[in-house]
Design goal:
The chain starts with a helix and ends with a strand. The protein contains one helix and eight strands. It is about 20% helix and about 40% strand. With about 140 residues, the chain is of the alpha+beta class. It has one helix at about 1-25, and strands spanning about 40-45, 50-55, 60-65, 65-70, 80-90, 95-105, 110-115, 125-135. The protein has a four-stranded antiparallel beta sheet, with no helix packed on it. It has a domain at about 40-135.
Amino acid sequence: MLNRFITLAICLILATSGTASAATRFAPQNSFAQPDAKAGQVGGIVNSSGGIVYGSGFQISHPETGEYIVTIGANVFKKCPIVNITPAGTNSSPPLANLYSYGCGAGGVSLTILMIGSTTGQPEDNAFHFTAIQP
């Protein structure tokens, strides 16, 4: 019975200190500091017709079915951002969000997003959420 308690105690010690020691050992110095206030972050929610539901700092055009172009103005980012796109607001099978084209320069970004039906394989209009975050 005592061996079980000792084993449990060792497991608890490893479980609670393993993450902290691994993070401390492998994380770059100052990686846990607050983000720089000047770091660029832009995100928003776009409806299926290309209207901005939420967010600012970007423009949207919707030239064809399933195609959306997100334009973020110059000097927002110091480096090319990491981009995430998530389809939203579907009542059936969500489409696939494809970052078809990505252009970055002078702190601005241009993203061409294609929404492809997951069951049809054809372009389809659909709302989406996106974030662009400077690494």
